[in-house]
Amino acid sequence: MKKTDLVNSIIKIVGRDRTVHEETELKLYSYDSSFLSSRNRFCPDVVALPRSTAEVSAIMKMASDNSIPVTPRGAGSGETCGCLPVRGGIVLDLSPWNTIEEVDAPNMQVLARPGVVHSRLNDHLEQYGLFFPPDPGSTRMCTLGGMVANNSSGMRAVKYGVTEQYILGLEVVLPGGEIVTTGGTNCRALKNVSGINLTKLFVGSEGTLGVITRIRLRVWPRPRARGLAVACFSDLDLAPGAVLDVYRAGILPSAVEILDHSAIRAVNLYRPEINLPPAEAILIFELDGNPASIEWEGREIASLLKKSASGVEWSTDPERVKALWQGRSVVAAAAARLKPDGTRVFAGEDICVPLDRVAESLRGIKQLSEKHSITAVSYGHIGDGNIHTALIINPDDPGEVDRLDLVVDGIHRLAIELGGTTTGEHGVGLVRSAYSPAEHGNAVNVMKNIKNALDPKGIMNPGKIF
Amino acid sequence: MQGNVIIREYQSKCVRCGQCRSVCPVLDILGKEPASPRGKVYLAGLIARGEVPPGPRAEEILSLCLVCGACSAQCPSGLPVDGIITAAREAAASYRHYSPYRFMYRSFFTQMPLLGRLPGFASLFRGMAGGTPLTGRPARHQISPITLPQKKKPLMRVGYFLGCATNYLLPEVAVSVVNVLTHLGCEVVTPPFACCGLPLAAEGEAAAAKKTLEVNRRLYQAYKLDALITDCSSCSHHLTGQGLAGDAQPVYEFCEFLVKVLNPARPAIEISQSVACHYPCHLRHGRKLEDHLHQILGNIPGLSLVEIPGGGSCCGGGGSFSIKQKSISSRILQKYTGQILSSGAQCAATVCPSCIMQLRRGLKNQDMPVLHAAQLLSRSYLIGQSPIPEFNLSILMTI
Ligand SMILES: Cc1cc2nc3c(=O)[nH]c(=O)nc-3n(C[C@H](O)[C@H](O)[C@H](O)COP(=O)(O)OP(=O)(O)OC[C@H]3O[C@@H](n4cnc5c(N)ncnc54)[C@H](O)[C@@H]3O)c2cc1C
Ligand code: SF4
Ligand code: SF4
């Protein structure tokens, strides 16, 4: 199909206002937040901004008839090149399709279109005393569609789990244009084991199996209080043990975060007034729930921590909680301070390892960064072993970029070696597809067979995951 | 080129996280990535690296920006996002730096004090600003260059930075500002300042903007002022951002001056109005001074401040944006005035002449007046005892 014909057929479906085809504008659909995307130019031939399932279906049918690749896109906050059209074709920008169609408060569920931004949903749910618990750091930008496609989560996954657990059903447009609804989309049951679980098949499929056009998700009562315990460790090895001690005491915090030595240094350089103590690691435990129960649990955690840590503090005072959080909340922005003129890049940023190997992983990352002279800052969700490493480089220095690639590869291999995974929450996309065979063995073939069955022409977000 | 230097310095620090997407009023209307702050920053980088040539295509995308600064306030990497966009405008327009349009635009804003003397200039200015109704002669002809407080010895000698929009479009605001300041004991001097330079900087005319800044700096120093006050959030943002007077002689936004320096007694006369307070973007994101406006209005007896649902937003004005991107500007305005109306307020108040013009356009059929905070204050302080004849405020309230 000629490009002009393709553009015209998209215009016919969604209208001129919701079609992007000018060359310069298309270049602005060539990135997400991954470093890899800034080193390539994955430009679409045309972008459509659909606003109805019928429009998406018509686009998919046309694309399938003409074997044109289609890549769904939310806010483009992903870190994997997931939403980029690596083989050209059509990009579906679903971010403006952001209607919250229904809040069914008595039945604790919401029906929404894919472009709804996570924080907007939670702001809206506040009036009902409800919330949607998965909490990615990208809450202010990422869309529900992107979260479902990537099975996103955040630091509160320790207690609340990941997106998958909250999806009751989906409306999906299959690569050929057929519209299906899975699980509980058309009913309001909160539990549903009827049929093969297609909902779970689409959650985490990274846009490779179909386009998610409507989401029914369950929501939870909003916790009434929050508290924070902070502790400093002079020996990194003691930190994972302290987390286990808390679990063993029968307490499940809503988040357990770690800042290692590099992160503490970065925060102090960025905001000296925060003045974190010069420890090897700082742990932050967040508790949420009812005031009386978190008060008891908080004090219990504090006394457990005192056995192995110094500077232990527990507070439920909102101002103090905010101050104690500060170190953790600025660390991503602070990371670049460790290297003058350096830029933080998103690469090798999301490994997840067994709890008892977190210390080993952090040391391994430090060794890799020293060996290849790449500045690294590590922090993350120690509660479930998910480590976010911020690598700081000068992106205009080709030598440094080559060394970065070595560090990133080393971090991913380290995770697999230690019995973990290359990605705890951000996904595979293009940047981690090389590790799929090592992580999944012949299960990759099963994935490919499922993909072929649903997408025989291979037009749905090709080039990703495997 | 200066633009490219700025872009190179900052653009590579954009991690493309997309957080700025959450606050951009233009993206909110258009939905497409090229309209997002991130898209425009990325485009800036492509232009600086020569991957996209300067030209109308790039200019068009970069024109999708109000220079409101919401993105910069939101960016976790601390980037001056709107500054990168205006630098990119300079780079994108470099192919027609000497075009008649650019030349006229530059001349218009750099030569404003001279042009202002030409007969008919006031009408021309008003026509360009969208055919605003005439509300009197330019302010400069209505207020004297020096106004002294009526009875007392002046507390301090302050300069009034009478900006272009207030001078030509809202002279009654200038009268109120001078009235309030003199009432509170200041000697008010109104030197013939040039444009603050923001309209130039926003269009990517950094060098011309610098020139007006120099003119203003010389005047400021020559007049030996204790402080400089502007009634316009945007002038205040630009002048402080560019360091007009260094730290020694600060430039204050009107309410900021009242709160930080004068700390005045509560005005006496009741204004029984429910008022929706509009925080201009440059006040909110640029200067972070919303509290001062809130405090000043909240201090007026009888006046009840009403929350705008959603906490208020951009009015869509953005100076020349409302002319160049009329339809987007109107859509932002329409959405926002809907929110203001649903607040149930009788009147809206703010501290920016450009926002006032824009909001009046949006609310003209709704019987809701839009006033500058100085007008409300002036009424609450001074009714019947103005040193300069005030506009009839009851008429004003119905404009
Ligand atoms: C600063 C920062 C912090 C982050 N923190 C976290 C975190 O704490 N936890 C976490 O899990 N992630 C995090 N992320 C990663 C990212 O924000 C999430 O993966 C997010 O869910 C992606 O949403 P999006 O709307 O931006 O999707 P995009 O990036 O646009 O797309 C992501 C993938 O989803 C697919 N997709 C999008 N919409 C649809 C749809 N409607 N139908 C089918 N496929 C679709 C795309 O094809 C692509 O493969 C972070 C990112 C940044 C930049
Ligand atoms: S918020 Fe800042 S770093 Fe993030 S995309 Fe926008 S400009 Fe770039
Ligand atoms: S300055 Fe305002 S309009 Fe311009 S990109 Fe930033 S948020 Fe959008």
Q: Give the CA-CA distance, first to last residue of chain A.
A: 27 Å
CA-CA gap between termini of chain B: 46 Å
* Strand-pairing-aware structural class of chain B: alpha/beta
Unreliable segments of chain B (pLDDT under 50, ≥5 consecutive)?
Answer: 386-399
Biggest sheet layout of chain A: 8 strands, antiparallel
Largest β sheet strand count, sense and barrel closure of chain B: 5 strands, mixed
Write down the oligomeric state: heterodimer
| Fraction of helical residues of chain B | 40-55%
Poorly predicted runs of chain A: none
**Total domain units of chain A:** 4
Distinct ligand kinds:
flavin-adenine dinucleotide, iron/sulfur cluster
List descriptors:
heterodimer, A: 466 residues, alpha+beta, Uridine Diphospho-n-acetylenolpyruvylglucosamine Reductase, domain 2, Uridine Diphospho-n-acetylenolpyruvylglucosamine Reductase, domain 3, Alpha-Beta Plaits, 4 domains, 5-stranded antiparallel β-sheet, 16 helices, B: 399 residues, alpha/beta, Fumarate Reductase Iron-sulfur Protein, Chain B, domain 2, Rossmann fold, 3 domains, 5-stranded mixed β-sheet, 4-stranded parallel β-sheet, 23 helices, 9 strands, disordered C terminus, binds flavin-adenine dinucleotide, binds iron/sulfur cluster
Can you give a write-up of this model?
The complex is a heterodimer of chains A (466) and B (399). Helices cover 35% and strands 20% of the residues of chain A. By secondary structure, chain A is α+β, with helices and mostly antiparallel strands. In chain A, strands 12, 13, 14, 15, 16, 17, 18 and 19 form an 8-stranded antiparallel β-sheet that branches. In chain A, strands 5-6-10-8-9 form a 5-stranded antiparallel β-sheet. In chain A, a hairpin with a 4-residue loop joins β5 and β6. The mean pLDDT of chain A is 96. Chain B has 3 domains: 2-96, Alpha-helical ferredoxin (Fumarate Reductase Iron-sulfur Protein, Chain B, domain 2), CATH 1.10.1060; 112-262, no CATH class; 274-398, Rossmann fold. Chain B has 23 helices and 9 strands. In chain B, the strands form 2 sheets. A 5-stranded mixed β-sheet of chain B has the order 1-3-2-4-5, with helices on both faces. In chain B, α1 (2-11) crosses α3 and α12 (171-183) crosses α22. The longest helix of chain B has 17 residues, at 206-222. Chain B is globular. Mean pLDDT of chain B is 89; it is low at 386-399. The interface between A and B is medium-sized, with 37 and 27 residues. Bound molecules: flavin-adenine dinucleotide and iron/sulfur cluster (2 copies).
